[in-house]
Amino acid sequence: MQGMPYPWMVQQQQAGRQLCLILDGGGEECQALSAARDLSRYCSLYSQTAVAELAKTGPVILLLEDLAEPGLTQLLQKPETNWGWLGSLLNDDLTDVTRHWRERMLVGEPGRQALYRFQDNRTLARVLTYLPAEQWPVFLGPLVSVCYWHDDGWCCRDNPAPGNYPVPDPAPWSQVPNPQAAAILHANILRYLLAEHSEALAALVEFQDPRIWLTQVLEQAHAWQWCGPQQLEFLVVRRLEEATRSSVIQWQPMKGETPVEHYERVVEQWRREGAEHV
Fold it and tell me: Do residues 51 and 58 lie in contact, with contact meaning Cβ atoms separated by under 8 Å?
């Protein structure tokens, strides 16, 4: 569906459905749209949850009626800012859809959970592209249809079976690969090194581009299957020390070693080396 999504919105209204908008909170447009509604017409999805302190900047769901509303028009004119997406419901009761997304706002194991950015149109697009259509209902829940910006155009998808569904374990949408994951990890590690190992990083800059160096280290981690946070931290920090100081660690895996055995042997070797120099 190319162009502005008005034909989709009109179609949904003509079918007797209620239009809604799911978008990031905190922006001027979101504040203006929220201020124009009473409490029954919008909801902050983080409020009354474990992350209620983030409610002011968290995602919001708003009911739409006037397709010419200035705040809505402004958003639709700049979809490339990835502000969120549009949906339709069978009625104007936000209870079910609010509960649905609150149950899906966290992903990961207890104690290591992260906020899931379901309000991001790029996230929505990845899920609906990756998952087969028969799995869409458990992700979209009460939403009858959705319309979102993706790859320089508007897309719309219909939910095959709108309704209320429990969160499956594991949640299929949490398994969807993120093409930006590598770039995000790369940037986060550089920020960590700058904050915690700034002197070593400054020494590295004198003779090598840290970005190229880190790319090579992460390629090594992938090849060795050292993907856990502890393994990555050890490899990056020790490699940085090696690049800027003397080191005699035998990094390469030995014949027949599993990734875990390889990691444990290298850590033990590093500990012995450290003890000898104390």
Answer: yes
Q: Across the strands, what pairs with 85? A: 22
Residue 233, Ramachandran bin (φ over 0: left; ψ between -120 and 50: alpha; else beta): alpha
Residue numbers of the domain that contains 165? 6-175
DSSP letter string, 179-247: TTHHHHHHHHHHHHHHHH-HHHHHHHHTTS-HHHHHHHHHHHHHHHT--SHHHHHHHHHHHHHHHHS--
Domain boundary among 175, 191, 221: 175
Whether pLDDT at 13 is above 90? yes
Q: Rounded to an integer, what distance in angstroms lies between the CA atom of residue 39 and that of residue 71?
A: 18
Residue partners of 187: CB distance under 8 A and separation at least 6: none
Residue 142 structure tokens = 């009460």
Does pLDDT of 114 surpass 90?
no
Q: What is the rounded CA–CA span in Å between residue 216 and residue 28?
A: 42
Q: Is the pLDDT at 1 greater than 60, yes or no?
A: no
**Cα–Cα distance measured from residue 272 to residue 164, given in angstroms and rounded to the nearest whole number:** 57
110 and 52, same structural domain?
Answer: yes
